[in-house]
Design goal:
This protein is α+β, with helices and mostly antiparallel strands. It has seven helices and four strands; from the N terminus they run ααβααβαβααβ. 39% of the residues lie in helices and 14% in strands. Helix 2 crosses helix 5 (120-137) and helix 3 (60-75) crosses helix 4 (85-95). It is globular and about 50 Å long.
Length: 202
């Protein structure tokens, strides 16, 4: 685990977080997964509502079934002009029949919240960022997964998610692929910033 001693250490640590999209098949020890989840549970939430619901999937059959349902859903869609590039890529790869949205990670954490709660996506975003930073501290690889949010009204996926324990009034607003990086350790070279402009006033 990485030790942080100063604000600069923390900033360097945040800069070193990178997404992992290729994982070993090796399982993640439950104690480590629990630490990642605890980081998410202690994220801020609007009005301290604490309404996020995390479903932790480690069963390979279920992960494979999710991948098939997501692939089928995207394969039935068409790419439109101006579409978000990642969604267009999901559709394109799904039509090719080989798309696995969770990168075959051994752990997939679905982050759900109340469908009718206006801060659902914001709360889930805070939780997922906390979890990705904790994964980095534990030398685990992680990647934010959007696809289940894009498909969170798909009836087949909803049925399976409810079978897994998601409540009737909840929807998935994000997910986290988690596991040991295929490279052996997370890539930590910071990517240069090309956007995220800052304007100072006063």
């Amino acid at each position: 685990m990485r030790e942080l001693k100063s604000g600069q250490d923390m900033l360097d640590f945040i800069r070193s977080r990178r997404s992992t999209r290729s994982f070993k098949e090796s399982p993640v020890d439950r104690a480590l997964t629990e630490m990642v989840l605890e980081a998410g549970r202690y994220a801020p939430s609007g009005g301290n509502s604490q309404t996020s619901h995390f479903l932790v999937i480690q069963d390979r059959e279920i992960l494979d079934k999710l991948a098939v349902l997501v692939r089928e859903a995207f394969a039935g869609m068409e790419i439109t002009e101006g579409m978000y590039p990642s969604m267009a890529n999901s559709i394109r790869l799904s039509k090719g029949g080989k798309y696995v949205f969770h990168y075959n990670a051994p752990v997939l954490i679905l982050a759900a919240n109340r469908k009718d709660y206006g801060n659902s996506l914001a709360d889930i975003s805070c939780a997922l960022e906390n979890m990705m930073l904790m994964a980095n501290a534990l030398d685990l690889g992680s990647c934010w997964i959007n696809q289940l949010k894009w498909l969170n009204e798909d009836e087949k996926l909803l049925l399976l998610e409810r079978e897994l324990g998601m409540k009737e009034g909840e929807r998935v607003f994000g997910a986290l692929a988690l596991g040991w990086p295929a490279s052996g350790a997370p890539v930590r070279d910071p990517l240069p910033r090309k956007g995220n402009e800052v304007t100072w006033i006063g």
